[in-house]
Write a structure and sequence with these properties.
4 helices; 2 domains; single chain; four-stranded parallel β-sheet; 8 strands; alpha/beta
């Protein structure tokens, strides 16, 4: 990420702030599919991976028809195959990286609360125990994190997973 930042993307003229994080979503083999960029002031944008130009990855400014997968999918599949449990499902890439920093295995779906899709269950197939972490966003957030955690857990239970919902440690 460079320091030249008043970026404008096709399809919109709203300027974006400074990019502060890049979260790359990869397929099972580790090939990039898309990335989510975080900007300050807080904003997120997704970009489809187009391939490499030399050593540099090229990104479209739109997501388009990119295949949507869980974050850190290759690491997730490796851990599940090795029998690692529990697997944490968080609400956001930053939370995933915090769990991983503490030695756990975690994932999230792209785009935040309310964006779980039943087809993500296939990425978790074989997991012995899944813990869904509920964001505590209370009345100000209209309890979106709690509702999201319940929806994810319900989806997983319907598919036969052993699931718990927990709130993050404060």
């Amino acid at each position: 990420m460079s320091d030249a930042y008043e970026q404008r993307f096709r399809g919109g003229s709203r300027p974006l702030g400074k990019p502060v994080r890049e979260y790359v979503y990869r397929d099972e083999a580790g090939t990039p599919l898309f990335r989510v960029m975080r900007y300050e002031p807080k904003d997120f944008r997704a970009h489809k991976f187009l391939g490499y130009k030399g050593q540099l990855p090229q990104w479209d400014t739109r997501l388009g028809d990119a295949r949507l997968v869980l974050y850190h999918l290759p690491e997730l599949r490796t851990a599940i195959t090795a029998g690692v449990a529990p697997i944490y499902v968080c609400e956001g890439e930053k939370d995933v990286e915090n769990v991983e920093g503490a030695g756990g295995v975690a994932t999230t779906m792209p785009f935040g609360a309310g964006k779980w899709r039943d087809d993500y269950r296939e990425h978790l197939r074989g997991a012995q125990h899944v813990i869904v972490i509920a964001d505590v966003d209370g009345p100000a957030g209209n309890y979106a994190g709690e509702r999201h955690a319940q929806a994810v857990a319900t989806s997983l239970v319907r598919a036969g997973f052993l699931v718990q919902i927990r709130q993050p440690a404060v």
